[in-house]
Amino acid sequence: MMRRSSSRSFVGISAAALVSMLTLSSCAPETSMPVPSSSPTETAVSTADGVLRIGTLLPASSASQVAGVELAVRDINLGGGVGGVPVEVFHRTSGAAETGQLESAFGDLVDKGVDVVIGPSSEQFRDRLAPLAEEAGILIMSPTVAVPETRDDALFLSLAAPLSAQATELSAGLIDAGATLVTLVAVRESASLGESEAVFTSDVDALAEALHSKLDAAGARLALATRFDVSEPDLPRLLAALAKSRAEHIVLATPRGGAGATAGLVRELATAGYPGSSLWFTAEATVSYAGSLPAGALEGAHGLRGAAESNSDFLLGVIQSDPGLGFRSSAGEAYDAVMLAAVAAVVGGDDGGSAIAATARRSVADSIRCSYFAECLDIFAQGRAVDYCGVTGSRGFSAGGSILSADFVRYAFTAENSPVVAQPLQ
After folding, report:
1. Are residues 36 and 114 in the same domain?
2. Which of 277, 286, 232 is nearest to 259 (CA)?
3. Residue 79 backbone phi and psi in degrees, to 5
4. Do residues 175 and 303 share a domain?
5. Do residues 278 and 205 both lie within one domain?
6. Model confidence over 366-420: pLDDT tens digits?
7. Is 320 left (phi over 0), alpha (psi -120 to 50) or beta?
8. Is residue 21 situated within a structural domain?
């Protein structure tokens, strides 16, 4: 699966100078990470050939992410392309876990000469792709799969913000609402989580720690952090713990796809006397419950969604990319993954996957923020450090390639149990 090609620089500045001009790690200076002292990998083969080629390797259900990729490629090419050359894109589906379609599709993308693959959709697929990407020198950028801090895959970057990244906006909303005592309940269904259970458990622990710190700094307190497994529900235990905590605000945290489990718990909480106005939802659970809960059950409840899902201009572009698209989850992360790769390729003067990975992990002080590709090119042409602030907002990469921060927007639930923007991102 390994391919070799001659490296061709398309920007007439030395590579060392180019690298010093980029930070992709954050729109906020405090989240910038140190510059790595070495390249991500010594064994990866360069795939640079003067043309940035993007591949997608996603399930058939991820049309929103494909639309985000298509929109990014269009915007990059309208902005002049990478090194004056249009970006190319190839789409493949990953198939079911029990088949070999993932490896076959990845091999096809290697044959197409891709430098970056947007995907995959699960931790299992990430583990299967990691050694293949290393061998081929291709960067994998996932819009949905986080990177545990215990891993350090040189050619894997995640645009998926962990639960703990929501702590800043959650705590701010709770304080604004006058909260003094808060309870965090992790709502899960272990029978359906499978391989993601350990990741979700770790994410909840990190969210609890972050909420505790931020609430404490504001004079409030996280009185309880507990779990509720709908596969083996123990409602009396949960209600007793909630009563003992005396918390009047309950944060319900769920994994991806956990809204159904959350709806069932909301019904039980309402029966126990906890109104919708006492509830706060993490981003994965801030969806419409119009068909699963009685009218008014969530009126006054609050939740978060990613910044891209509140960006009307971006959503219009996604719809234009795929007019039949209804659900637009993770389109912003897919869009920003492609944009980050393109900006890194320009700044690093190298469209190869391993070079893009190295450049994308670096940060530079006193950088200039840019929010679209042509603007980034203009700032870079002036010899200034580029700070790409995407549609998902601020971010910070850890040394292992995981997102440390992202921007979220507060939502409020209507009497129809649907979330609407309560406080637009400033």
Report:
1. yes
2. 286
3. -85, 5
4. yes
5. yes
6. 788 888 899 999 999 999 988 888 888 866 677 777 777 788 999 999 999 999 9
7. alpha
8. yes
Strand segments (E) across 87-159 = 88-93, 116-118, 139-142, 156-158
Using the structure block, give the residue that is written with the tokens 């060392």.
Answer: 16
Q: How many whole angstroms separate alpha carbon 162 and alpha carbon 101?
A: 28
What amino acid is encoded at 97 in this protein?
A
> How many other C-beta atoms can be found within 10 angstroms of the C-beta atom of residue 148?
15
Instruction: Judge if pTM exceeds 0.70.
Output: yes
Q: Residue 124, Cα to own-chain centre: how many angstroms?
A: 18
Average of per-residue pLDDT across 290-304:
93
Tokens found for residue 170: 């959650």
**Rounded CA gap, 362 and 347, in Å?**
11
Q: Do 99 and 58 share a structural domain?
A: yes
Alpha carbon 364 to chain centroid, angstroms: 22
Kindly report, residue by residue over 95-149, the tens digit of the pLDDT. 888 899 999 999 999 999 999 999 998 888 988 999 999 999 999 999 988 776 6
CA pair distance 14, 57, nearest whole angstrom: 33
- Per-residue tokens: 133: 């990407």
